[in-house]
Every structure is written in structure tokens, then in C-alpha cells.
Amino acid sequence: MIGLNNIARNIPGLQDAIVKFDPKIGTGRFSFQKVKDTFETALAETQPEDSERIGALSKLVSAFKEYVLSTFIEKYRPGYSHQDERGIGVQTLVDDAFEKLGYKKENPIRFYQEKLEGVKKALMPSYKSESTRPEYYDWLDLTDRGVIKTSLTAAKEAAQKIKNEGFFSHALVMGMGGSSMCPKFLNTAFDSNAENGLQIETMDNMDPATLETKLAKLPAHETAFVIISKSGGTFEAAHVIQAIIDHLRAQNGGDLDKALKTFAERAVFITEPKEYEYHTSEGVKQGTNGGTLNKLADELEKKTGTRPQMIDHPPRVGGRFSLFSPVGMFISELKGLKTDEFIAGAKACLDEFFKGDLKDSSAVHYALLDALAASKEGWGSFAARYVMPYGDRLAAIPEFTAQLAGESNNKDGVQSLNQMWGRGPTSHHSDVEALCRTDKRRLLFEEIFVKNNDEDRVHGQTGLDSLKDYQLKSMHQDMLTKLALPFGKHLSKEKNNPVISTVLESINEKSMGYLMMRNMLATVIQAGIHNGDMNANLSKVVNQSEVEAFKVAKKNDAAELGLSDVELKTQAA
């Protein structure tokens, strides 16, 4: 931590400005303006050519802000230390939530020790890439020949091929369910692209008005059309492809051949390969995929002489666990992000669980809290987990987590909380009453916030008395110290409701990779520690029996309505 005295002795007069600092009353009341004025005076007295002094003063401004915000977080969130020895920049603060149960966080880990070790042993083959891996857990494989690293290589090569064309400036990415959440998360969290990145638009529904709006504003001949469907036969994706071709036809004066050629040259399909091998406890098996995307690629090549670029979707990775497959990594590369850092963050989270002590794994803490909240023996009076991210760039995180929980654990035989989310501080106006409930409908609250916002702004001086309390103030810092931190404290101290705090030092690839792997890993840990057969529970997490049953019912309903064979085949896919 940077001490105030270390800052003060560097600039005359600063000591007087900060001796009255009191963390209890907020940034607006401890002469923050005097501190700013002191810095500005020092800067004004510095000659323009004295770049070294100007740089030193700028660092002192940043250091002071760092100290202020760290002090506030430490004051309001016990257990926080902005000195992150792992270098990941993510801390999951759970002491408060466990204490509401009368536990220290080590106690539930000891209680579930045997089950947690069992889950680690069951999933270890996936982590080590052995042939006895559980089905659909390839997304844990960090070995050189595993899904994560081979996906990174494939994503880099495919994205570079797009960029080498020289005329692509945008990409429209279409996927459904888990296949859409990964691109959506990346595009939201990193709303600005690197210098060599493409502008990304995501489409995760089949609303014709939304699609028409997106297509109308995209430069058709500069846009890559990325279609993601693991099976290759997603109903909604097929509709979007047809709409894109219709749009290109209109752009080309009604010339269908030219439209098909344009689409083939600009399309990227992420789907399972036609033929593949996969490892199971029973040995190596063969798989095939005859989905619409593979068939369409063949047909386009035959008609136009151009085959869309094909990227293999790992067959044993479900959509909601596909962030570290080409589904997520290709989009990261298109945006020009540091994809290797995503992998580094994910690896740090996995290593905590598989190589470290269970008490140091944030995924274990996260899983235990949700499992205890959902159990009849534990709190048993919680209706849902409510996640509130403070900042629009974090908004896709709880939506992603809800997708994980909804498809994985919210099913018969697995105890899990339903997921709700808001957006702070906007939801302070709509959901505070619900969040402050103390009866059997109360909510387990998780807040997510970034300590240092690289897009923050500090207001200038306007000379307007009515706005004097907002001048020379950081928007982000005031949001945290006046709204976010006090609200979590109110829930914990006044309402005795548990609060989980996820604190990011900043939004970057490594911290986001760690955070998202934490959520994915916690989802399966939670299922594995439930009562009953652990292997059956782990299998249930990655399977979707009700989804498959609905597909059959949908096909039967369509037949009863007398739909044509073509329509039946489309819906059955």
C-alpha cells in the first residue's frame, strides 16, 4: 500500500491537505479539492520542459486516488487487500457471507472435504488430458494438445486469415444460448477494440426487426458473418443465414449468384467437424456431424467455387463452457484482444483448484456458498442469487452466469439457486426493496465492481455553485464510495443478509479469464458435492435431457400442424 506520508513529503503543502482524511465520511468531505488544488498549483509552477517533474506529479495524483479507494474498500469489505500476490487482479470476498451462517470459510471446506477431493479426482483426467476423462469436460484440458491451447492456435490462424484479406472492418456474430453468451460477454466487457481489431455486432435471437437494424448499419462488403452452432443445425441460426443472403441479394441488385458468392467469401462457420474422434472411459470413439452448416458449406462451394472458412468446434465441449474454445477465442482475436492473457487467467483459476489448497480456491468458495444457500439443511430460505455488476462493461457477466446455472444446475436432482441480476446503480431504484427482504424470500447478494476504471473521468471546474460538490470528482470513485460500497454494507450490517464481493483491480484479459473460469468451474463443483452419486451429478451438469425432450416435442407438434417436409427438417435440426 502507498502510505499518505510517502505521497505528502513529495509535494509541499500536501500534508496539510490530507491530515484530516477520514474514511468514514467519503471523498466529498475530506478536502479532496484542496488536494487537487495543491497538485494543480505544483503543476502550474512547473516549467513545460520539465517532463520528469510533470510525470512525477501525475504519478502522485494516481497514487493518491489509489490510496483513497483502497482505504474505502478495506473499510467496507473486510478481507480485501489490494496487494494481489497472484497478479491476477480478482478477489472473491466471502468471509461476510460465511459468517452469516456462523462459519469461518474454512469450516464448510472441512465439512465437504471428502466430496471436494472426490470432484477434484473425477475432473483431474480432463485437466491432465487422460483418456478416462469425463464426457464433455474437455474445456478443462490445459495440456499442449488439449482443447484450450489448440483452440488458441486455431483462433489466431483463422482471425489472421480474416485480417489478411484487408477489407474486413466489421463482424456480425450469430449464436444461440451458450454459443452467443461467449461472444456477447467479450464484446461487452471490451467495448473498445485494439487498433487492429474489427467492430463486432452480436445477434442472439431471431427478432427480424433487430436483425434488419443490424444488417442495415453494417457495411455488407466489409463484414464477416460468423455463425456459431455446435450441432450445425440450430434453428435460429438457419433463419439468420437466410436473412443475410436475402440482404446481400438486395445489396447486389437482386443477383442471387453474386449474393451467394459474397456470403461464401465472408462467412465463417464454427461447428463440429464432419468426422472426429473423442476419448471416453471405454476408449476412443468415432463421431460424425451432418448438420446444416457442414452441408451448407459443401453446397456453397459447389455453387460458387468458394467454401466458407470452417473452424472446428470441439465436439466434447458444450456451448456454455465454450469460452476458451474457438467460440470465444476467435472473437477475442478478431477484436484484437490479448487472448493469451485470457488463457493465463483461466489457468491460474484451474491451478488453484487442482494444484493448490482447497481453502485458497475462489471457485470452491463460490460453489459452497451457492450450494449451502440452496440446501434445506443450510440457509434454506433463499429464493435466488442476485448479482449486481457496477458498470456497463460488467453487465454480461451475470447473464453468462445465469446461462451456466440455468442449463447446468437448475434441474431435477441438483440443488441450485435461480439466478437474478440487475445493473448498479440503476437497479438501486428498482430492486432495493426485494434485496432488503429478510423473510424466506430473501436473496443471496453478489456485487461485482472494478476498483480502477481505465475509462473513468474527473469533472473539471465550471464555476457553478449548484454543481460545486461534483467538480474535480471521479465519476467511478464516487459511484463506489457513495453508492456501491454503502449499499453492500447496508445489506450486511443492517439487514444481516450475506454479501459476496467480487473485486477486480481493472478490466483486462487476465482478470476476466480468471473470473469466467471461476464461474464455470464453480458450477460443476457445486453439482459434484450434492448428495447422491457424484459421477451422475457431474454428468447431469453437462447434459440437457429436457432440452432434447423439447426438441422431440417440437418436431411432433410441427407434424401435427401439417408443416412441410422442408420446415420439419429445419425445425428438427
Keywords:
Rossmann fold; 573 residues; alpha/beta; 4 domains; disordered N terminus; single chain
Lay out the secondary structure.
Blueprint: H1 4-8, H2 14-18, H3 32-44, H4 51-76, E1 90-93, H5 95-99, H6 106-111, H7 113-128, H8 147-164, E2 170-174, H9 178-189, E3 199-203, H10 208-217, E4 223-228, H11 235-251, H12 256-266, E5 267-271, E6 275-280, E7 283-288, H13 292-304, E8 309-312, H14 326-335, H15 339-354, H16 362-374, E9 382-390, H17 396-408, E10 418-421, H18 432-435, E11 442-450, H19 475-494, E12 499-504, H20 509-528, H21 534-542, H22 545-560, H23 565-572
Parallel strand pairs: 2-3, 2-4, 4-5, 5-8, 9-10, 9-11, 11-12
Antiparallel strand pairs: 1-12, 6-7
Helix pairs in contact: 3-4, 4-19, 8-14, 9-14, 9-17, 11-12, 12-13, 15-20, 16-20, 17-20, 20-21, 22-23
Fold and architecture overview:
By secondary structure, this protein is of the alpha/beta class. The protein has 4 domains: 4-76, no CATH class; 90-114 and 343-533, Glucose-6-phosphate isomerase like protein, domain 1 (Rossmann fold), CATH 3.40.50.10490; 142-337, 3-Layer(aba) Sandwich (Rossmann fold), CATH 3.40.50; 543-573. Helices cover 50% and strands 12% of the residues. It contains 23 helices and 12 strands. It has helices at 4-8, 14-18, 32-44, 51-76, 95-99, 106-111, 113-128, 147-164, 178-189, 208-217, 235-251, 256-266, 292-304, 326-335, 339-354, 362-374, 396-408, 432-435, 475-494, 509-528, 534-542, 545-560, 565-572, and strands spanning 90-93, 170-174, 199-203, 223-228, 267-271, 275-280, 283-288, 309-312, 382-390, 418-421, 442-450, 499-504. It has a 5-stranded mixed β-sheet with strand order 1-12-11-9-10, sandwiched between helices. It has a 5-stranded parallel β-sheet with strand order 3-2-4-5-8, sandwiched between helices. The longest helix is centred in the first third of the chain and has 26 residues, at 51-76. It is globular and about 70 Å long. Mean pLDDT is 81; it is low at 1-5, 17-31 and 564-573.
